[in-house]
Amino acid sequence: MCQYENSRNVSFKFVILYLDEAWIAYYCFPFFFFSSSNTLNLDVTALIAYISDLTNGGANYTFQEPILSQQAEWERSHPTKPILEELFKGNIQESTSRLRINLETAANHDKSGTMALLVENYYMVPYELNRDLLYVYLLSCVYL
Amino acid sequence: MIEVLNFSGKELICSETAAQSFQSIIDMLAGPGELARSKELMERVRVVPDNISERTKKLLTQGGKIKERSMIIFGTGDFMKAPTVTANRGFVLSAHNQVSCRPQIIVTLIKKIHGPTIAFL
């Protein structure tokens, strides 16, 4: 039924089990996957992106330098300022876990808009397949 | 035009190194609008002293895209338990590479399964 080439140390059962546990963890302890802190650390690049003329309505200009023109084009197609403002307001939750990003990607591909994951299309495998480590991880969700 | 900053949600911090670098860049090449905006932003941002977390020191080694300055900035964020907002994709990717070589659980999307199994939660 299921065929995949890179299955050296991965059994199908194990993959599904792991996936289920990850989903249970995600649904029961969502705080683990979201940042709980109310502070944001700003990098130099973030500071500059926030105050730059380019991100504050100055992108409608063709520069002499091709690099600058490309930057302006990116800015026009994907404005930076709204994202930063939403982040600062706390409306966007920044991801603290790789798993959340992957789940989100999978959910985005689901047309119904629910957070149902189609295993038909995706499966998840940890880099280190170690059951004991997994349980430590799940327990830490409960007790931390 | 100077916009009024009204982010009510998050507290913004930045490390001393980042603030200094930012200030030197602003002094060098900022226009009047940018200068005004930077002043407003820095009134809002709390500057915290540099402090690299133990975790960062242990997990990351300098070299390539991981420069000392970036390590200080990101390490300070980690020390303050605050996520870092950045456009420095190079650092993030290479840091992720360095860390994920060590034994820890990171789940990744690898490839498709061909089968009718559907999991709903």
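Strands of chain B lie at 11-15, 46-48, 84-85, 107-109.
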